[in-house]
Design goal:
Elements lengths: L9 H7 L5 H13 L2 E8 L5 E5 L9 E2 L3 H9 L3 E2 L6 E10 L2 E11 L6 H4 L8 H7 L13
Antiparallel strand pairs: 1-2, 1-6, 2-3, 4-5, 5-6
């Protein structure tokens, strides 16, 4: 952060966050700076068939199709998708890609008047943690490789 910046940038705050707090940090930043709510990081399973929420808000733990719906469309086409506004907010879904690999989608509800993808796109950052790897391969958490003798 430079001394001329009154607040740390979104990128610097995300980079300084521990990997296991990345989703919570993204939720806080989007809420504080863009009025976002229902911020969810959806990671694709290794078969690229479903999108699973990481640290899901209550009641949203079900996986979504990686091919259907707004989040699936953002993942498949690799372009932001903005849903038509309802109740004064618009759903925004931004693909998360690291070094050309499709990882998932960052979804949020933003005030309809300012629902552009710039703020959400800034949060599409790389993640390194077992927490994220385990969401991509459910059932593999805690397993250790066995050596055959």
């Amino acid at each position: 952060m430079s001394t001329s910046e009154p607040f740390p940038s979104v990128e610097s705050e995300l980079r300084s966050a521990p990997p296991n707090a990345l989703v919570e940090t993204a939720r806080r930043l989007l809420g504080d700076r863009a009025g976002a709510r229902d911020v969810t990081l959806l990671l694709a399973d290794y078969g690229l068939r479903v999108l699973r929420p990481v640290a899901p808000p209550p009641g949203t733990n079900e996986p979504l199709s990686a091919y259907d719906g707004p989040a699936g469309r953002a993942f498949t086409v690799q372009t932001p998708v903005i849903e038509p506004p309802e109740d004064g907010t618009a759903g925004v879904h931004v693909p998360v890609t690291v070094r050309g690999d499709r990882l998932g989608v960052l979804s949020a509800r933003l005030p309809a008047a300012g629902a552009d993808t710039a703020g959400v796109r800034a949060l599409a950052a790389r993640t390194r943690s077992d927490r994220f790897r385990n969401r991509r391969a459910p059932g593999r958490a805690g397993r250790t490789a066995r050596r055959r003798t």
